[in-house]
Amino acid sequence: MSKRRPLVAANWKMNGTLSSIRPLLASICKGIAEGVKAEIAICPPYVYLGEVARLLEQAGIALGAQNLARHDAGAYTGEVAAAMLKDYQCRYVIVGHSERRTLYGETDAVVADKFVQATKNGLTPILCIGEYLEEREAGETENVLARQLDAVIEKAGIAAFDKAVIAYEPVWAIGTGKTATPGQAEEAHAFIRLRLARHDDKIADQLRILYGGSVKAANAEELFNMADIDGGLIGGASLQADEFLAICRAA
Ligand code: PGA
């Protein structure tokens, strides 16, 4: 088993204003400077990328975006291209978050295109996959994960996962306060790793798989202690510095 460096990524979603993110980042940077072992990334809304990049200078914290366009450039009003994210020093980009899939109709095919755009432009995609509650209750969790994963492997090729991160986010756990148990999460993570190993052992072994869905300071450690959980994608709790820092330290 290789040692994977944990990653804790903050997904701010559509939250924050210039006046709220400045003190939030000042506290986060201060806490991180006191020492954490995990890699940390912040994914603010697009319009704040420039400001956050500036505030994170020298902080040793990576920048990420929450979404990107599936096309290179052109007449796509309101969209933001991968090359533009590179321009703003993004290292990561979240792809296929369940809110994008559910609220904005992103299909597996769209998600796969976005993943390709990210890797082609030197960004590391954080590919989100996860099942709805009805799917879990119907015993469909592994089928759903396999379908979402295979769509991307087919289009991008397994080699593209060399520079990717996966986030397992059960939809029923996102923003609900209901976390998957460490056992439930580990089972899904191990399944995802096995699915990738069918194509390439080495890539499967070194790929980081984050857990997301109501992670907070109180449950982070027991989740991160599981063998196949390599950090977290943090929504609500990433908007509070103390809570987010405690999660970063737990990784
Ligand atoms: P949550 O969100 O931590 O607020 O549940 C996680 C996510 O959607 O990435």
Question: Can you give keywords for this protein?
Answer:
single chain; about 250 residues; alpha/beta; TIM Barrel; eight-stranded parallel β-barrel; 8 strands; about 45% helix; globular; binds 2-phosphoglycolic acid
Could you describe the 3D structure shown?
The chain has eleven helices and eight strands. The longest helix is centred in the first third of the chain and has 16 residues, at 18-33. It has a domain at 63-207 and 222-231: Alpha-Beta Barrel (TIM Barrel). It is 44% helix and 16% strand. Helix 1 (18-33) links the parallel strand 1 (7-11) and strand 2 (39-43). The chain has 251 residues and is of the alpha/beta class. 43% of the residues are buried. The mean pLDDT is 96. The structure holds 2-phosphoglycolic acid. 2-phosphoglycolic acid binds next to strand 8. The site of 2-phosphoglycolic acid has 13 residues, from strand 8.
CATH architecture of one domain: Alpha-Beta Barrel
- Low-confidence segments, given as residue ranges, are none
CATH class of one domain: Alpha Beta
Total number of strands: 8
Hetero groups:
2-phosphoglycolic acid
Structural class: alpha/beta
What is the assigned CATH homologous superfamily of one domain? Aldolase class I
In which range does the helix fraction lie? 40-55%
The average pLDDT score comes to 96
How would you sum up the global shape?
A: globular
